[in-house]
What we know:
By secondary structure, the protein is α+β, with helices and mostly antiparallel strands. Helix content is about 45%, strand content about 25%. It has helices at about 5-25, 45-50, 70-85, 135-160, 165-180, 210, 225-235, 250-260, 295-320, 325-360, 365-395, 410-425, 440-445, 450-465, 525-535, and strands at about 25-35, 40, 90-100, 105-115, 120-130, 185-190, 200-205, 220, 235-240, 265-270, 275-285, 405, 430-435, 445-450, 470-480, 485-490, 540-545, 550-560, 560-565. The protein has a six-stranded antiparallel beta sheet, sandwiched between helices. The chain has a five-stranded antiparallel beta sheet with strand order 2-1-5-4-3, sandwiched between helices. Helix 14 packs antiparallel against helix 15. The longest helix is centred in the middle third of the chain and has 36 residues, at about 325-360.
Amino acid sequence: MTKEYQAKQKIIESRELLEAVIFGADAGIWEWDYQTTRLTVNPHFYDIIGQNPDEVSATAIKTLFPRIHKEDKHRVLREIVNHVKGRTKHLQVQFRVQFDDNQWRWIQVRGKITRRDENENIKKISGTIVDIDNLRRSRMELEHRILFEKLLTEIIGDLVNISNTNFDQIIRNALKKTGEFLEADRIYLYQYNNTQTELTKTHQFTTPETETDSKNIPSLNVADYSWLINHLHANAFLVIPDTNTLPPEATSLKQTLKLRGTKSLLTVRLRYENRILGFMGLDSVKGYRTWHVDDINALKAIAYNFANAIEAKKNHQNLVESKNKAEESDRIKSAFLATMNHELRTPLNHILGLSDIIKASTAEQDIIEFTEMIHDSGKNLLNMIEDIFQIADMEKGLISLQLQTFRGLEFYMESKSRLEQQLKASGKEKEIKLRFSPDKILLMSYLTTDRTKLSLILHKLFNNAIKYTHTGEIEYGFKVIEKSVVRFFVRDTGIGIPTEKHQLIFELFRQGDDNLTRQFGGIGAGLAITAKVVTAMKGKIEVESIPGEGSTFSITLPMALESIKRL
């Protein structure tokens, strides 16, 4: 076998490998003759830019520029110039291209200067082109979903603490947040009066540009707007992309929308149990639009919480008539929390259960991953909701202690098992090693304290250690430090906490990584709840931590101890 033959074989093998890599990456290949502007490409290049090879000139790259979105052209040219001028090592730019069906898709171009002449002038620039539209859309949808979950959590948190004195302000703020999130020109609430003969506009948010042109319609006669009302009673929402297309039986609605300058309309009913309380409307004034199903579902979820808040306010007003304002305010808040507790937990539990059923009934990996995402998000939201209700109870001073006497060994085995289960549920059991350091004196004693509260404290500390430890070790132990005083501790090798934030972490809704791009989930309530419970038990909580090395949380609690042998 000659060296020439071997060299040819290597070239063939390299070419085949390159073709396989290109095929696997689903990329188009291009080479741009910088001096003649001729563009040489592979067949897949045309698929990616949505063009027929016969319709594209292969003589000049300028023929491709008309298809680039006008908002992206300047950026594309700037990146090309930067690379040609030697300001960047590689050419990399993302932009939109118009296909033959007038649809816009995102693509990514990467390349570099590959050949120069004897005078170092650029001759060739080569690279790849990839369709990233689906990836970009998925990322945007995920970001949109995360922002919505944050918005919904904020609104629920506001509504939990709603009262007659701040009701209007909280609803207006919630409408403002919702309108800005959904990019609405106008968003409002209409509610039935007591006789169900009229719908009255109770709250509204309007953008500054729209506000000057807005005609106020304070109330709607039910008889005149029967088409809209009947539709909302039969369906959860109504979408009207073009108000000019409304049917003759919706004449009153059409005239009202024209008067207000509304081009497109989305309405969602306000429903509490089996009763319709009114509706939430969203107007597009600047232009015609239709709403994505995610936007509709977002508005439905927010309307659901508004309906609960509105119903809670009505209940509050009914109680005011027969009871003292101070007593009534406290009682209605409890009733409201109980209602919210049920109304939020029930659908979330249904979602969690359904996600488990779907996961168990399919072998498709994509569906399994999606259901796991749904389950994890739902579980996180449920934990947040439970924290909110615990905080609300604590703010009212509803921390009562129930003393119990139990074996130290039994409690140790129970808490040890709980930590192991929490670690397993986190998916970090292979990265984190557990260490246990129980005091033999305590194991051989009876303890008298609030067992439920002690379990809650340890659960929060275990969860905190697991959340902030990626790899390493978590140690759980306890020690009798003096008669009737026990110190429990949870040590981890996690990210640690700066000294200046040691007290901050025990405040509500704060975390050690409290910044605009928080890496960790939750609402920052776990340690605050723990601290309040420890205080109620007449104990003390402390933290020792070094950033990058880990943290140790200790709780010192008074409790009666009695040796098992003596008993």
